[in-house]
Amino acid sequence: MTDQPASAAGTAPGGGPPARPSGTVGPPARPSGTVRKLTVVLLGLTAVVTLMLCAFALPSVHGGPHEVPIGVSGPHAATEALARKLPSDEWKVTVYADKAALTADIEDGDVSGGLVLAADGPGIYTATAGAPMATNALTALGNGLAAEQHAKATVHELVPFTADDPRGSGFSAAALPMIFGGMFPAIILTRLFPGHAGLRVRLTGAVLFSLLAGFAVTALLQYGTGSLDGSYALTSLGMSLGMAALSLTFIGLEALVGFGGLGAGAALMMFLGNPLSGLQTGPHWLPDGWSTFGQVLPPGASGSLLRANGFFDGAHAAGPLAVLGAWVLLGVVLLLAADRRARGASRAGAQERATRVPAAV
Q1: With helix as H, strand as E and coil as C, how does 46-59 read?
Q2: Do 309 and 235 meet the contact criterion of CB atoms below 8 Å apart?
Q3: pLDDT-based confidence at residue 10 (cuts at 50, 70, 90)
Q4: Is 336 helix (H, G, I), strand (E, B) or coil?
Q5: Which residue of 7, 9, 38, 273 has the lowest C-beta tally within 10 Å?
Q6: pLDDT in tens, 305-328
Q7: Statement: residue 350 has pLDDT above 80
Q8: Is 89 helix (H, G, I), strand (E, B) or coil?
Q9: Do 58 and 100 meet the contact criterion of CB atoms below 8 Å apart?
Q10: What is the DSSP secondary structure assignment for residue 126, as one 8-state letter?
């Protein structure tokens, strides 16, 4: 009987895989890397879509007057009774000695509107440009009081939107251009001038773009659509500051963390900053926690600054300016940290190369 040549270890004759003895059962097949990766991506995208729906839907569903600052004036007994009657979680009531003091504070943006009580029916004083939805609720409240007196309320608009854009459509549409005005330059400049060598170019480009875009967007809103009514230079600088706060933060995140940091920052501003900005409704229409969080993000602060400069001659602009200045500072700190880390890595690499040369010789 002739012996057959032995095959290579672990292979069947002919070079194929080793034959599995009949009747044996192998270990269960594990999911491939592609299946695992696809599963993670699908679950992640589902979570993102769900969170996005929550961010956009929940503030709207739970929207309503939340501690809206209003003033009342009139006979002492009537104003005190009304202040006690109104729900404190919806209205924050200040009693004024006379109508002149009330209307002055409305025009300065200290309160969102007010009621002047009189025997022939209440007078409703509004500032629609400052708080559109609160104005509607205040008007309904005044009409309800008038119905109880069997009288008719009179509405006095003190700070309206412009005559060319009475519904404030152009003003409300400014949220996305402000966000994209910070996002797009960060993405494009990072792609065109990557790495540590392009860090200063990205910083310079972001600042210059913010100035150009801020003046251009404001010109369109003020002179193109007639949606703003304020100092063009002041409003443009405020718009530029809002864009710089976003773009510098995005560029700093990318330089320090990588492109994932930029993506996370952009998602935060799009999915939370935009719906919580209160640009369309006014911040007091959102629940307290949502409103506060929205106003410390750049879109909310930019919207409040645009409202202050565009309709209230800069009144109450200090708060939004401080928030945006803090975000600009954060972006600069992130860039400095990334620059320092890159310089440290470069020095370490140079020292390592220097120590290898004598050893090789």
Answers
A1: HHHHHHHHHHHHHH
A2: yes
A3: very low
A4: helix
A5: 9
A6: 999 999 999 999 999 999 999 999
A7: no
A8: coil
A9: no
A10: E
Cα atoms found within 13 Å of the Cα of residue 171, Cβ hemisphere only: 34
Q: How far is CA 93 from CA 4, 224, 283, in A?
A: 102, 38, 17
Rg, Å, the chain Cα set: 31
Q: Tokens 């057959």, residue?
A: 4
pLDDT digits (tens, 9 = 90+) for 42-69: 888 888 788 777 777 766 677 788 889 9
- Contact between 25 and 19 under an 8 Å Cβ cutoff? The reply is no
pLDDT of residue 9: 45
The larger pLDDT score, comparing residue 147 to residue 62, is at 147
Q: Contact, 117 vs 78, CB < 8 A?
A: yes
Cβ neighbourhood burial of 335 (10 Å; 0-12, 13-18, 19+): buried
Q: CA 74: distance to chain centroid?
A: 40
d(CA 111, CA 170): 24
Is residue 106 within 8 A of residue 136, CB to CB? The reply is: no
DSSP 8-state symbol, 66: S
157 membership: H or E segment, kind and range: strand 154-157
DSSP per position, 204-250: HHHHHHHHHHHHHHHHIIIIIS----S-HHHHHHHHHHHHHHHHHHH
